[in-house]
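Input sequence (334 aa), recorded before submission:
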Amino acid sequence: MRKPGIRKGWILLLIGFLVFAFSSKVEAQGITINDFRGKTLKLPKPAERIVCLIESALSGIYMLGEEKRVVGISRNIYNDDVYPYYAALDSRIKDKKLPAPGNWDFVNLESLLTLKPDLVIIWSQQTEVIAALEEKGIPVFGVFINRKEDVYQEMRALGRITGTLKRAEELVAYTQRELARFQNRVMNLASDKRPGIYYMWAQGNLETSCGESTVNDLIHLAGGRNVCASIPNEHLIVNMEKVLSWNPDLIVMWYNERKNPEDIIQDPQWKRIKAVRSQRVHEFPEVFLCDLWTLKFVYAVKMVAKWAHPDLFRDIDLNRERKKMLDFLYGKKL
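Predicted structure, token format:
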């Protein structure tokens, strides 16, 4: 009679063999994936040397726990207010030892090539750089985030690229559950119960986002009504007369180092706006916490929901929500 311990050992050995066989099959087949340009990429195996020049993707890679694969990052990681967060996630960034060969508007091709990447992740509109890289046989994953579905698509793509699709699906599922938890309170609100919201980018008080945008998704999910939802533009510069005609109930500002809600409230140009008269002008915290192009957009939704419907979300502690989100997305590293 065979001893239980021996039998267990054979079972574990068999499981190990099957896992190895499956992994070998996946590696043999390689990875095929489409980027946001519609370009089909084929990788022989998960990328091991990634130069990531777009912050939404970099954030996703750190959520996946695959930062060891990153050999180059965008320059703005060292210059912007996101630096302390990434410094906490990666000692190479803290010590400023991770090379930064470019960002969304300029790339030093020579410096990038010295990093010998097997994949470059970049903004899809950087067509000249992409063409130069592809001419040299370097696979490029182009990114363009326009709606919340794009955020999910990017995360799943990063999971395939790094061989961590299961974790990517867990991250997406978590975000969708959290959105549903908040949406359940506002989804049946009549239109007249949804406050009109004007979104203000930091580049200028009259720069906003309308119908086909992550901002529009954000406002709708939070139980609001984007005052320019009927206009398709993702980014639009308007005039003061137009804002006066919309007369929003609430103003939401993107994080702005130079300006805060009090500046808008005290601005004579804005004093006739309903949101200003009722002092319902709010500003997002630093970009890292509510990045609309990453799964962290869920925190932005929660903030806007509480600002728009304080009675419906009276029980919600935003500080607790933020900590819970960061713990799940990045582990306990933050």
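Checked by second reader. Residues 1-9, 11-28 have pLDDT under 50 and may be disordered.
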